[in-house]
Amino acid sequence: MNKKMLLSLVDKVIKVDRGGPESRVGLLLSAEDDYFTLLTENDGIIYYSTQHIKSLTNHSKNETEFNLEIPKDFEYIQADDFKGILNCLTLQWVKINRGGPETLEGVLDSVTDDYAIIVANEEIIRVALFHIRNISYGVKIEKTKKDKDKSGKEENKNNKEDNKNESKNQEEAK
Q1: DSSP assignment of 110-146, as one string?
Q2: Which pLDDT tens digit goes with each residue over 44-88?
């Protein structure tokens, strides 16, 4: 993914990758030479290394809903390159490689030219920089009351449907 193409998608809702554990939908906040910044509803800010991105989608049907209002004073970490982002996140609680078996969560202790050191569960883990697909830290935007009410109504609707199906299954079992 080149920077020019990514810059054309800034401030648009996109889907990263087609599916799988690393796929996310969010608002593209910025694009640099070797990474981009995505704001997601559930995970907050995620920094993606562009060398691992297989596809980006915008204007897809029903899959790119984004219901967060971004405050005017919203700030996030920016750097010239992906290693710079990692350096800015030292001593922060981070999550690396958001999906799949290589997910890692802990405190980012330090970053060298070749690897990052994560402290997690009394272990010191060295992760090769090349294998870090994405990283996020604790910054999230709280949903507005309107957004919470909307998601609460959807949850109640789903719970009612589940209860109906459960009752129906119990009657059929008798």
Answers
A1: EE-SSEEEEEETTEEEEEEGGG--EEEES--PPPPHH
A2: 899 999 998 989 988 756 555 666 777 777 789 999 999 999 999
Classify strands 13-16 and 104-111 as parallel, antiparallel or unpaired.
unpaired
- The residue with tokens 């990514």 is 6
Alpha-carbon distance of 51 to 73, in angstroms, equals: 31
pLDDT digits (tens, 9 = 90+) for 95-105: 999 877 889 99
Tokens of 54: 């297989």
Which helix (H) or strand (E) element contains residue 86? helix 82-88
Q: And the tokens for 4? A: 């020019």
Count the neighbouring beta carbons within 10 Å of the beta carbon of residue 52. 16
Residue 51 is classified by DSSP as G
Torsion angle (degrees, nearest 10) of CA 82, 87, 121, 51: 10
Instruction: Answer whether 115's CB lies under 8 Å from 127's CB.
Output: yes
Residue type, 130: F
pTM here is 0.76
Q: What is the DSSP letter of 43?
A: T
